[in-house]
Amino acid sequence: MFEALETGKNLTAEEFKDYREDLRPALLEAQFALAKRDYPVLIVMGGFDGAGKGAVVHRLNEWMDARLIETHALWMHSDEEESRPYYWRFWQRLPPRGRIGIMLGTWYQRATYRAMAGLLDDAGFELAMRRAVDFEQTLVADGALVIKLWLHVSRDMQRLQLSQEAPRQQQNPRVPGDPEAWWSTRGEPQHRGADPVSNLPADPEEWWRRYPQALEVSERLLRLTDSGEAPWHLVEANDRYYRDATAATLILNAMNGHEPGGTASTHPVKFLPEPGGQPTVLDHVDLSRHVPRDEYKLRLAVLQDRVQDLFWQAHRERRSLVAVFEGWDAAGKGSALRRLTAAVDPRLYKLVQFAAPTDEERAHHYLWRFWRQLQRDGRATLFDRSWYGRVLVERVEALVPESTWRRAYSEINDFEAQLVEHGCIVAKFWLHISKDEQLKRFKDREAKPHKQYKISKEDWRNRKKWDDYSLAVEDMVANTSTGKAPWHLVAGNDKKSARLEILELLCEHFEQCLGDRTRRLRDRA
Amino acid sequence: MFEALETGKNLTAEEFKDYREDLRPALLEAQFALAKRDYPVLIVMGGFDGAGKGAVVHRLNEWMDARLIETHALWMHSDEEESRPYYWRFWQRLPPRGRIGIMLGTWYQRATYRAMAGLLDDAGFELAMRRAVDFEQTLVADGALVIKLWLHVSRDMQRLQLSQEAPRQQQNPRVPGDPEAWWSTRGEPQHRGADPVSNLPADPEEWWRRYPQALEVSERLLRLTDSGEAPWHLVEANDRYYRDATAATLILNAMNGHEPGGTASTHPVKFLPEPGGQPTVLDHVDLSRHVPRDEYKLRLAVLQDRVQDLFWQAHRERRSLVAVFEGWDAAGKGSALRRLTAAVDPRLYKLVQFAAPTDEERAHHYLWRFWRQLQRDGRATLFDRSWYGRVLVERVEALVPESTWRRAYSEINDFEAQLVEHGCIVAKFWLHISKDEQLKRFKDREAKPHKQYKISKEDWRNRKKWDDYSLAVEDMVANTSTGKAPWHLVAGNDKKSARLEILELLCEHFEQCLGDRTRRLRDRA
Predict the structure, then answer these.
(1) Which residues contact B216 (CB under 8 A, 6 or more apart)?
(2) Does domain B2-262 have CATH number 3.40.50.300?
(3) Nearest 10 degrees: CA dihedral of A204, A205, A206, A212?
(4) For an interface test with B, which of A81, A82, A83 has the most B Cβ atoms less than 10 Å from its Cβ?
(5) pTM (2 decimals)?
(6) I need a labelling partner for A410 at 20 to 30 A (CA). Which of A83, A343, A520, B518 fits?
(7) What's the whole-number average pLDDT of chain A?
(8) What's the topology of domain A282-524?
(9) Secondary-structure class of domain A10-278 per CATH
(10) A10-278 and A282-524 agree in CATH topology
């Protein structure tokens, strides 16, 4: 998920000032409108330490009427809290109707730190997350608007931020107790009801070491708690201007678009302040790769051998591959897929292609047509286009309302998590080309008679929406690329290079997963 | 929960015939209307073996157009299913839009049997249940109407039913494999992905022995999976006429009241076919109890001593009592509470009385005012009226829409489960008197000047709604009386007897819970 949150989005001081001009009065207006409504707004600030959650809250208090905002920082634990059920502390702090409450430190916190410290297993963590969602749904059912922001900083930026804060922190240690005990227990006398709660490390280097671990837990947190009623908004937070403007815009849009009663707003809410020319995750794909013909032939043969062996190994281990192929029109998906299938015994896979749904498919939930294609253990299912249609074409063409495609992220993550849990190997490929390269190929298709069947008016129509699709791809990667079911963005301007890259990535992913399994079996024996 | 489902509700053959006259055409009409709508109806049949789930499905197929109903009995497990993620089998069987699908055997089944067999711990069971709710919510978000019926039979009735079925079963054993292995594993070669799934016992005596265990797991199942989007409807199933008529009426009402889109219907849906004079759980309270004055004094003194000791013991063990007192107007709640508080050191409890909410309380979620009153570990909170107002007065007086009070059952169960999990001891008392006794007391209050402040027009108004309140109490007990947070129905016609009974029940509940804890501590040491 986080690769899409390290693209280098930023604003200049000038741009930020322009935004501020618009945002301040709009936020104040929304706040005064809220004062007359009969529901509260709960802003949940998520993200790592050093991501600037506190700074954003400062900014919000500066821009809005601070008398109508309650900010709760739950990083100190009182005896009174420990003596009551865990959620008591949060119930105490709920804002009344007509007001905004900001939560710095939330119902996610305890389980997250415990999971990072290895004190909570996967099932326990999932349970805590599902209970958190339940709590939010209870509030939403009562009319509350819950706005969840997740601020993401890169590893380096976190180190930088924390090292600037460190001197202050050491003078005022956040949590008393044994400094060695951070992320484990409070070092205080344990009594019933008191769960181990983290001490936070004062040392930025310790955070640096734990960063990958924190990423993994955070990814699961986001996947499990992104609900239709209270979705997460992911914010790239390396640049503070971009971070603050984005956070404020998201809050503004959510407040303006909210209809009390729990279901998603019918107003179209713009997702991000997309100042023209912000970099996206696709801009980080290196399209200059090129493979000469001779090298290509050689490497292709080797890779095809390797992939065939891996398909057989997966079959023996009764593991099932689920591979998804998406990409721009004319990106070369079909020819890349042929290089893959050419290598594999037809008994070991099924290739399914998706266009518009059939009548029968239309009569079911949109995931039904994909579930039914799943092959059994030991056989692969290759999806030429897939369930991602909902957040790509159906989003861009407005075939479904925004609430529907937005909800799909969590439905898709849940679907893929079930596959992974069952033992499937899930790999997803987005075949990327530049806009110019697409034009070249379109023209080539029109020019050559034997390629004309490949090009239609629809392709030209889609091309006009290139920017919308780019944004949809960005959001898709941000919301659905997970450690166990990652998106691979493949450079497609050079067709040969793309084919090799897909095979290579597939082999690596295969080997990692099959290896995983082997390791686990070995550990058990 | 189940005490309210063994009250002896029944229909005569004649009454049933009358119902059938109404139900058949109405069901057919609803079915044909559905055929033109763009959502499916999923009927989930829950309950023990021998509760008559199959018989109800037969009846539905007989009364409706069977060509438009798909019935899926998921008690045989195929190799194809085991080779795919668990929910694949359910996705395969989802009815298309415009159709009815009936599920005999559901996504609850595997975890339930595993929990009964001791193969799944509490957290694992809760997780499986929350995932089941997630699955249902995914369908509901797509427009599906999910109707969940839970058929309950008493222990004796189950034995009777199963012993009639047993000869057939033994000829056609349901699941091949080791008959000893039921409720544990299938006895088939285990491979990855294949989870132990129950064999069902052919021997009714085995079910008889396991009945209490099954009750306990079922209660947790119902508590965890009763959601606003897909609530459970509990059906007393000892009498087959009552069972079939009730099940069919519930389905009819749900279908007629459904608005696609997931939120509850705005049409008022009648809950049950309440043929005048069906017994309720309150009819089983023995109001003839009477305690003579001398015996009362003696026993009261003993009980007050005992209760004081127990409050101190709880304090030492840092356990917190949460006791709820509800009852009819003039049932003697106040005087019973005084007998309790007279016995206890004031430092050990807080008594909170609830009338109409304050402005500040009204500005929050309705549970907020109760959460904030919770005393810390080792101190008791006595609630004179409570969160049950939502499903009693607010329901009967229509102060909130039906969807709101119906959702409250699960919110309340969740709240109390959090209390229990934290270590609180939760006891709930309903003080019951007869309608005649209430009249006598009202008149007495009006007659005696020093009691006139106790009676108001509102009391007389409430009294007119006696039947509505009775039904609300019945539903409340059915939906919220759990093993760890039970409802105690106290006979109040004789005030002295009622006071003693409350103290006695409280002491017993206390001792059981503190004993529990003592045992646990002992076991650990």
Answers:
(1) B483
(2) yes
(3) 100
(4) A83
(5) 0.84
(6) A520
(7) 85
(8) Rossmann fold (3.40.50)
(9) alpha beta
(10) yes
